[in-house]
Structure formats: structure tokens, C-alpha cells
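Workshop exercise sheet. Pairs work together: one partner reads the sequence aloud, the other fills in the structure field after running the prediction. Swap roles for the next sheet.
Pair: D.N. / O.F.
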Amino acid sequence: MLKSIALLLLVVATWCGPASAQTIAGRWQTTYFSASTGRETWFILDISQEKGRLSARRYELDSIEPTAASKIMFEKRKLAVSIGDDTFTGELSADGGRVAGQMTAGGTSFPLAFDRATPATGWPFPPKPHAIQTITMDDGVKLEVVDWGGSGRPILFLAGMTATAHVFDAFAPQLGAKGHVYGVTRRGWGASDKPDPAAGGDYTTERLGKDALAVIDALHLDKPVLVGWSYGGAEMSYVASRAPGKVSGLVYLEGGYAYAFYAPGNYEPRGANLTMDASDLRAKIARALAAQSSDEAAAIIRDLLETNLPQLEADLHAADQVLREDPNVWPRPAPQSLQDRVAAAVAAGYMKLPAPKVPVLAIFADPSFMFPGMTPAEQESYRRSQARASEVVNRFEAGNPGARIVRLPNARHAIFMFAGPDVLREMNAFFDGLD
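Structure field:
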């Protein structure tokens, strides 16, 4: 459904009334939270006027390429947009600062509002120019690497699961005084190659972590600081666990969840621990069955009994509690598009990762707000989800006693965007404290 929503937000107007054009032209932004997927998406709708005609471009903040849309009707502050079976109807507020209305997409109707961006509230966009190159991995997959410039210590950004390096286009250049800043778009997204998981494309954490290491080597980066947003934290943890001498520090931006640090009893993101338990059990049982001696097999079986089974029990109890509280969060839609299959393959390839043995800064959102349009039931489910996420953060803190843990109140998952000054302050202090 999010994809149809994204398409619907790409509208371009062809209305010629100059007075109304003055009220509707401008940059509009909105955030939408899906309770079913637990994901937040954000869009910019840039409406401009030229020779009495309105046109608009829609940006997703993880892409530098805008998309123009085709149809809109705007009259007497009433806005109506339709693409295919999807519709949006809304009304411009009297002060001209908001268009609020109703979206119908994928058979579901819900409230949605766009706010006019101001110098104080506008997201930092569009990005400044930057250099782009392509690096080829050992399996032939080509990855996009962005170079935002700067001088000094190398800094490498790793994006969230469904994002590209361009999600940092506005934020990353602000660190140019601290170092030379790069970003990589992982395989499966944006301008990087997208091998289909259905045809053997590998998206395990191990593969993606090796990609990050390969980028470090190809760019000849001398002990960079890795900065990982969301799932990017998993790739950072992999690098630090396999080659700690190659990095000087890690910055987790809402990235220290179960995919980046294993602790029994974690649940967020949903099912991550059970996925890792299953993978570990299969691998160790296979090793036991293939053991060349009874002593070798016995050692593996003891490890299973003493380590894996207690972990599995804790993770099953956590999943059982979630299902008792929120039975509707468990079903997963079958992957349809290539991007759906890639995201599912990434989730299926999680691996248990230990606490990193390098300096760590971990910044987490500690939200206490609700997204507009949530029903009371969705609000309650979201509160429970946030409580579970807070438990994961507490376990990350307990398991990483040397790390600096920062919780930003009223922040959001795209923490570098919605709490940018706070994040920059913490990152600058972290960089200053590194050797």
C-alpha cells in the first residue's frame, strides 16, 4: 500500500487561477506511519507556478530523482487528486499552512495532511551536488558510492534497509569539517545492482557486511568511522566483529536493534531473534552431524544445550507475549515486487552479532507522540511496540557498557532528519574524543 501512496503523492497541477496558485504553490511535506509494517515514510511535494500553470514534483528523501505527477484539481481551497483507484481529497487551511484530508489507497481510507515547509520547519532538501562512483564486489555486483567531500578522518554512512545513500544528502555534508564523508547504497536499492533473491541473489547480513568491508578497501579508507542508520547498524556490527582493526568507531543512528546486537528476549524488529535462532540451530546441528569424532559432536551438542536452547526459549517467550498482546502484528504479506523480495531476503539473513570492541556512539529515538490518523487500537499497539523497542535499547546499553547511549525525546526513526542538530552535536563530540 505504501507504494500506491507514494505514487499518489506525485501529483502535478494544471490550474491557472493566480490567486489560488499563490496559496497552494510551495513546498509541502508529510510523514505517514504504517502500523501494519511498522515503517515511517516521508515525502516532499514541491509545487511551483510558471506562466499561470502549476506543476509539482514529488521527492522521496532517500532519492535525488524527483517524479512529476499528472493530475490535480484545486478550487476554493479544495484539493482533489486521483491516480488509478487511489484518491486524496483535502482542504487548504485558512492560514495556508496545511492541506488536510482523506487518502484512500489499496482499499483502505485514512487521514493524511501535508504541511507547508517554512525556513524553520522545512526538511533540508534538495541536496548539494556531490560525486558518485561505482565499485564492483567480488561477485560482480556494482554498488553506488557517494562522496560528499570534506577532509580528515574518513566517515562512511550506511543507510537503512529500504533507503539509499542519498537519504543523507542533506545531513552528511554537515560533517565535512570533521572528515571526508562517503556513503554507500547497498545492493538491491537505488542505483546499485539488484540481484533477485528468487534467482539466488544473496542479501544475508554476512554478504552485506562483506560489501561494506569491500568498499572500505576499494576506497583505501584508513580506519573510518562507520555511521549506520537503522539496518545499517547490522552491517557496522558485522564489520566490527570480523575486522575491528579496520574501523576507529561506530555511530548507530536508531541502528542498535536486534539485527545489530543479539540479546535473548529481543523482539524488535519482529521475528528477528527467532530468525537468528533458527539459522544458528540449523548450522550447529549440521556441524554436529558432520563431526569427525564423538568428542567434536559432543562439544557442539553441549553448546546447543547450554547456549542456543536457553536463547531460543527466551525468544519464544518474547514472541508469545507479543502475540498475546498484538495478534495482528505477526502475519507478513507475501513478497510481490523485486524490492519486496529484497527486503524479505535481508530480514531472512539476520545473524547473531556480538557487542563491538571499538568506540561506540548509539543515538536512539525516544518518541512520546502519536502519528496523525491512528485509531485508538493502533495507538495502543504502537505504544506497546515502542515499549518493546525501549527494552531492546536497554539490552544494547547493558551489553555495551563502554558505549555512549543517547536517547532523544520526541525524536523519530529518521533521527538525523528530525533531530539533526542534536545528532550533529553528539557526533561531533564523539569524533573529537577518538584517537
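Discussion prompt: The chain has ten helices and 17 strands. What would you look at next?
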